[in-house]
Amino acid sequence: MIRPLGSRDTADLYYVRIAPEVMSETLGLPTLTSDRWGREVESMVGNPNNHCLVAEVEGRVVGAVNLEVLRGRKSHGGTLGLMVRDDHHGRGIGAALLDGMLEVADRWLGLRRVELEVFADNQVAIGLYERRGFLREGIKRGAAYRDGKYEDILVMARHRADA
Fold first, then answer.
1. Which of 22, 59, 97, 150 has the lowest CB atom count within 10 Å?
2. What DSSP assignment string belongs to 3-38?
3. pTM (predicted TM-score)
4. In degrees, to the nearest 5, what angle opens at C-alpha 26 toward C-alphas 132 and 24?
């Protein structure tokens, strides 16, 4: 089930966030404490410019997608982040989360641009984003440090001219 993030989801979402593959494919650090994560989730729940959906399977949150609406002259766009717990990869959960958030962006927020960043070697995620209309906009060379070396980040965005 895909649903909005709630305060009760903090613990489950923390375990999604610190999972080894999630940690490797995001820009998070392993020093994230559950207390700090709880404060971050609380700030997301109460923020009108931040929209988060979670995927629940058998009563546990196993993934999340977040869309932060930009401000000022960029208020027609938002930045997206997606994560799915390691043991739930390959089940369509990421696609369902992404589809749910793109519906929010299109039908409720009227966004013309949704952008994201992904490690350039994450072909599974890139394929999902491309199937949903995201285009490659550029590479940030050596932008993130992972597993002892600097890695490239791919910048992608989906544009809607009709919004």
1. 59
2. EE--GGGHHHHHHHHTSHHHHHHSS--TT--HHHHH
3. 0.91
4. 115
